[in-house]
Amino acid sequence: MVALRLKSPAVSSTDNGANSQKVTDIVKGVIDDIRANGDKAVRSYSEKFDKWSPESFKLSDAQIEEAISKVSPQTIADIKEAQRNVRTFAEAQRASIKDVEIEIQPGVFLGHRNNPIVTAGAYIPGGRYPLLASAHMTILTAKVAGVKHVIACTPPINNSIPNATVAAAHFAGADEIFILGGVQAVAAMSLGTETIRKVEFLAGPGNAFVAEAKRQLFGEMGIDLLAGPTEILIVADKDADPFTCATDLLSQAEHGPDSPAVLITESEEVGRETIRYIDEQLKTLVTAPVAGTAWRDYGEVVVVNDMDEAFRLADEYASEHVQIFTKQPREALEKMTNYGALFLGEKTCVSYGDKCIGTNHVLPTKKAGRYTGGLWVGKYLKTQTYQEVISDKASGELGRLCGRCSRAELFEGHARSGDLRSSKYLKDSYEWIDQARK
């Protein structure tokens, strides 16, 4: 039971209904236009929204090399180190996914193969910040899964090519890189145009318009998940450091003005001190206009009676990122199941996951952690079953069973497929077969 709320959100999650409908309508119009007019419409929206209309949205090899040459050696080294971490973990995940074949009875084989998607799209956001790490998470993970062709789209920043993002996409293994953003990029990859190949699956975070485009186009292609805005929740005991709590809450609040930042603690003192430190840090934080708005409108500090209640309440929030600041942080692995990702102990922070530690940062938000995990190599694989019966006796017996099961459901055509096998292999007699063979 909640003992005390030291801070509640100023904005209700239901306050933006009109804005949501506006986003839906705008996105539908863009998609319909691109569906009908292809590249012409893509160029029109790029000019309108990004003031960007190059001769070709696709970068040539020479342009990619030029972009990389403009990135500092340290940034290149950091990109490669972060990608090594992502690749190492993704490869371990891929190795854990096994093909299966069993003989469930003599002569009857069932199995599945984990086949990679052939073509995938990666959307790398870049409106407010150049999100290099999104290239690692979407492109590199797809390549480890075995995807043959990955298209990367990222918007221009300040009417120019985002060189560091291009470098990250290239080193991650992108087969084509387009400087194209927003709904027009998502629609172009999902539908295909004269110059942009249609993908079978699209991954990557984005703003409300990008998320809505993915929602509307889902079915024509697969998607990773509908994510956003970024969320953070900290579970803290009485010994947690309030300054660390404050710093880490603001680290995620700066993602956007609608990013929830929540502290659940058993200690009123920790809660009050965290609020004080947040107010103090906002005086000097460069991104305070964004982080401060998020904290004012969506920030929460909740005091509970004990840590068991803290874990139960955290599970109800099902937040994207959950940091555990307790003496025994691994306790959360047993007491929580609803989250995008756990960050255990004060030596671990969400920013590590966002940028460099190796786990994927495309994670479920808005309580989706109750029923799904985040992006990983498995999302790029199709687990596809197969069956083979090589025994006459087994096929005939299955035919008898199939006939009975099918007629119980009034599916006569299904039943006859079974009858035919039991007739062929067990010499069963059926009137319908005798009549049909005349």
UniProtKB/TrEMBL annotation:
PROSITE patterns per record: HISOL_DEHYDROGENASE
Cofactor note: Binds 1 zinc ion per subunit.
The protein's required cofactors: Zn(2+)
Catalytic activity, as annotated: L-histidinol + 2 NAD(+) + H2O = L-histidine + 2 NADH + 3 H(+)
GO-annotated molecular function: histidinol dehydrogenase activity; metal ion binding; NAD binding
Active site: E320 (proton acceptor), H321 (proton acceptor)
Single biological process term from Gene Ontology: L-histidine biosynthetic process
GO terms for cellular component: cytosol
Keywords for this protein: Amino-acid biosynthesis, Histidine biosynthesis, Metal-binding, NAD, Oxidoreductase, Zinc
Highest rank taxon of the organism: Eukaryota
Binding of Zn(2+), residues: Q252, H255, D354, H414
EC number: 1.1.1.23
One Pfam family it belongs to: Histidinol_dh
InterPro entries in the record: Ald_DH/histidinol_DH (IPR016161), Histidinol_DH_CS (IPR001692), Histidinol_DH_monofunct (IPR022695), Hstdl_DH (IPR012131)
The keyword Magnesium is assigned to this record: no
Sequence positions that bind substrate: T230, Q252, H255, H321, D354, E409, H414
Pathway info: Amino-acid biosynthesis; L-histidine biosynthesis; L-histidine from 5-phospho-alpha-D-ribose 1-diphosphate: step 9/9
Similarity comment: family membership: Belongs to the histidinol dehydrogenase family.
Task performed by this protein: Catalyzes the sequential NAD-dependent oxidations of L-histidinol to L-histidinaldehyde and then to L-histidine.
Name used for this protein in its record: Histidinol dehydrogenase
Organism, as annotated: Coniochaeta pulveracea
